[in-house]
């Protein structure tokens, strides 16, 4: 069974790096405290509750990939289709909703921690990697991505986000992860 992913076009591809233009989307997100791993686990649990029937219609909503996590930012909130972003111990964990839904057609969450939002189109620099996304790989990949953006005269906005595509039981060498940084529109 294919899992829907956010729609984008690639304007630059160089090894593991890409510049992507994402289409507008609708997302469900929660803000949770803790380190990256525990925030991802708690955020996933809350969002899974919503898509598995924790909503006003008790309706199941198809799972999409990736699960995004971003550190909470005081300056500029990230608008990635899927992100995990860190900041001062709080993370925003986001599921992009299937493209067949709009904000008007999605059932309302029954858990007040789950928020639905429109995500505008945006451009991102992205680096893909396999293995485990952890406290070592995330900052290292974010630094590589920042260097890539600088070398290509791309101006970044906000902090890096983590996108994870696989369930937890996937073998480490088969995992697909991405670090994303939003870019100024050109």
Summary of the model, kept short:
The protein is an alpha+beta fold and 186 residues long. It has helices at 36-51, 137-151, and strands at residues 8-14, 17-22, 25-33, 67-71, 84-87, 90-96, 115-119, 122-129, 156-164, 177-183. The protein has one domain (8-183): Multidrug-efflux Transporter 1 Regulator Bmrr, Chain A.
CATH superfamily: Regulatory factor, effector binding domain
The total count of helices amounts to 2
Low-pLDDT segments: 74-82
Task: Name the shape in a single word.
Answer: globular
* Percent of sequence in beta strands: 35-45%
What's the N-to-C terminus distance? Answer: 37 Å
**Structural class by sheet pairing and helices:** alpha+beta
| Largest beta-sheet details | 10 strands, antiparallel
Question: Got a strand count?
Answer: 10
What is the ordering of alpha helices and beta strands? EEEHEEEEEHEE
Assigned CATH class: Alpha Beta
């Amino acid at each position: 069974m294919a899992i829907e992913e956010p729609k984008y076009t690639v304007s630059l591809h160089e090894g593991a790096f890409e510049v992507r233009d994402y289409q507008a989307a609708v997302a469900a997100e929660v803000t949770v405290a803790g380190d990256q791993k525990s925030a991802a686990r708690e955020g996933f649990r809350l969002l899974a509750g919503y898509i598995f029937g924790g909503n006003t219609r008790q309706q199941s909503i198809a799972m999409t990939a990736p699960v995004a996590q971003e550190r909470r930012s005081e300056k500029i909130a990230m608008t990635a289709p899927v992100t995990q972003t860190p900041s001062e111990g709080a993370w925003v964990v986001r599921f992009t909703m299937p493209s067949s839904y709009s904000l008007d057609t999605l059932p309302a969450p029954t858990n007040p921690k789950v928020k639905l939002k429109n995500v505008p189109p945006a451009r991102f620099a992205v680096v893909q990697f396999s293995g485990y996304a952890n406290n070592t790989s995330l900052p290292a990949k974010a630094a590589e991505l920042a260097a890539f953006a600088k070398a290509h005269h791309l101006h970044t906005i906000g902090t890096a986000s983590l996108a994870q595509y696989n369930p937890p039981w996937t073998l480490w060498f088969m995992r697909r992860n991405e670090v994303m940084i939003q870019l100024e529109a050109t």
